[in-house]
Amino acid sequence: MNREYVCYCGLYCENCAVKVKVEPASKILYEEMKKAGFEDIMPFLSDGDKFWSFLTGMAVEGVCISCKAGSGDPNCKIRICAKEKNVEICALCESYPCELFTKYFEALPLFQHDNSVLRENGWEAWSKLQDERQARGFTYSENEKE
Q1: pTM higher than 0.70 for the full model?
Q2: Count of CB atoms situated within 10 Å of the CB of 68
Q3: Ramachandran category for residue 47: left, alpha or beta (phi over 0 → left; psi -120 to 50 → alpha)
Q4: pLDDT band at residue 146, thresholds of 50, 70 and 90?
């Protein structure tokens, strides 16, 4: 497990569907379109330059790293709070869980579980959980129940 991919909220980017499925698919699409000569004709298509720029960014530069590295919503209240409190991950904050997590956990109950694993059992247990998921191709979009 690579801690640079751990978000403040408890999400592990390496298990995000965007990173696991969309980014690799964008690389395939980009390469196939490039082989077929689309790079040269995109300027002639409506919004072709915008699309090609977007696809190139996803395929070549990658979608994102983590919110700590600047990806994601810069206005995320959880990120702003964690940065202000200088905590690595909210689950380890003395105020956790706070009101910022009420709706978050309703929408994504898996993160409540994951954050509990971290708080109660430490980084090693949390890392093992994330690594096991990654090994089996899990993504958060699958809404896994633990």
Answers
A1: yes
A2: 19
A3: left
A4: very low
